[in-house]
Amino acid sequence: MKSITGLDVPYRPEWHYSAERNWLNDPNGLVYSNGTYHLFYQHNPHGNDWGNMSWGHATSENLLQWEEGPVAILCDEQESIFSGSAVVDHHNTSGFGIGGVPPLVAIYTSAYSPESPLAGRQAQSLAYSTDDGDTWTKYAGNPVLDRASSDFRDPKVFWHEGDAGCYWVMVAVEALNREVVLYRSEDLKSWEYLSTFGPANATEGLWECPDLFELPLDGDASDTRWVMVVSLSPGGIAGGSGSQYFIGTFDGVTFRSETTVTEGMQPDNSRMTDYRWLDWGRDYYAAVSFSNVPDGRRLMIGWMSNWQYAGSTPSDGWRSAMSLAREVRLISRGGRPVLVQEAMDPLGQQGGQSTAPFTLDRQPLAEGVAWLPADASGDVLRIDAEFEPGAAATVGLVLRAGSEAGGAPGGASGHEDPAGLRTVLAYECISGELSLDRTQSGNVGFHETFPSVERVAVPLEDGRLRLRIFLDRCSVEVFAQDGLATITDLIFPDQPGNAVGLLAEGGGTLVSLAVVR
Ligand code: FRU
Question: What is the domain count for the chain?
Fold first, then answer.
């Protein structure tokens, strides 16, 4: 748990950022500047529920350990500070810089309160920092972009250099219309309309928190695609909040999707699995990318919760955490570009593991559940497993299982499969589906929509399934086939439950296993 005195409370994540106190939702203003990653976020400085929306602030040098700073941009009587982005204004186009030092500029949504002359509207505003993010000043000329709309929000701004010139581009949503609207600016202060994207693909809920960025395909800088990320709530693939993406082209004016399956406002739930999703779990929302990251790397963070139950999750003075940071890349699969995601590893080079990994080499899988020994159990673990299902009906892992699961020291010898506390990650070989079942994961009763089973189709590669799993005190993040599909879910075990088991029905081979903590 976070080693801050008095904060060792149940479920407090060790690897995932949570605010020391109070409520958190979307990541905001993700920006890299002078060796530091800045994570701003939707935050209620005064309580454990959504409200008083302001930008909290944490910083990190490695995207793994975060240090919380003072609230960066506070709400006031007139406005709440909704989601948005931040840029390093290298050329001081805004004029906010002093002494040749580029300012950081935050572009956020002013959600105007009844006390404001703009009551009921949402418009885009600026705040700037000339001390590398420590303190922020709201621009006196706010708002800088007002469409007299009640649901115009979540601006993501980036510097664009293309055939049409060099300028700032903003993508933001008209949430109720399921539209992403694009604008351009020379100075971040005056904005000119460019185009509209959407509605397309998943359109059941509100569109929120868009992002647009360019990535090389298969690492080839001369062959790029643009990725448009659109979060949606409700109407995500697993129910409630979810993040979809589109792949296409952007000419500096218009984004053209090459992955649109259905167009228009009529949600077509029968096509949901044909759409592209950043994550197939219930708890990866409002994911956006960092700006200004060196070497063209694209790093994203999502909020690990779901609006269906975000306000009801068990908590003790704090609520909600961020996902691990993920690097996203575009690769070709079956002739189509797809995103793959790799989590920044808390036990990797910059993190550091505390014990020698528990490993198993190639061996046949036992029928049922084979519990791993105690030194391969835990509530904060990274698990790397590779399976060759062969003729098996099911292979997988049982995670965070109750103490009755046992776990004979010295080997995977217990074959009993007691019912009880557990979270089950199973690969059904006939359907080719990976599922994460949290119906028996512990406290699931705080909201009727919480008990759930998430599913994603995952083709075997050379007959194999590779899984990387990050377990933290109240979450499971699964990366299948090197990040081709991910499932992120919260869990709240309510009894001691740290056992890990290997699961198999009808055969199958374990190629390798490493459990690290
Ligand atoms: C997404 C969202 C955004 C909004 C913010 C308010 O989770 O609804 O659209 O700006 O949260 O906290």
Answer: 2
Distance of CA 225 to the CA centre of its chain: 21
DSSP letter at 450? -
- Does residue 26 carry a catalytic annotation? yes
Condensed to tens digits (0 to 9), the pLDDT of residues 223-236 reads: 999 999 999 999 99
153, 181 Cβ separation under 8 angstroms: no
> Does the residue 14 lie in any domain?
no
**Distance from the alpha carbon of residue 81 to the mean position of ligand 1, in angstroms:** 10
pLDDT band at 417 (very low <50, low <70, confident <90, very high): very low
**Which atom of ligand 1 is nearest to 53's Cα?**
12
What is the model's pLDDT at position 496? Answer: 87
Closest residue by Cα to residue 332 from 484, 466, 221: 484
The residue segments making up the domain with residue 478 are 358-516
How many whole angstroms from 287 Cα to the centroid of ligand 1?
A: 11
Dist. CA 247–CA 225, nearest whole Å: 7
Residue 412 has pLDDT above 50, yes or no: no
Q: Which residues contact 76 (CB under 8 A, 6 or more apart)?
A: none
Task: Confirm or reject: Cβ of 377 under 6 Å from ligand 1.
Answer: no
Query: Quick one: DSSP state of residue 398?
Result: E
Note the pLDDT tens digit of each residue in 489-511. Answer: 999 999 889 999 999 999 999 99
334 and 363 in a single domain? The answer is no
Mean pLDDT of 18-43: 98
Listed residues 277, 312, 343: the one ending a domain = 343
Q: Do residues 332 and 376 share a domain?
A: no
Residue 510 inside a domain? The answer is: yes
Specify whether 127 is located in the same domain as 267. yes
425 inside domain? yes
Span 147-178, pLDDT tens digits: 999 999 999 999 999 998 999 999 999 999 99
Q: Which atom in ligand 1 lies closest to the alpha carbon of residue 209?
A: 9
Rounded to the nearest angstrom, the distance between the alpha carbon of 170 and the centre of ligand 1 is 17
Say if residue 338 is in the same domain as residue 379.
no
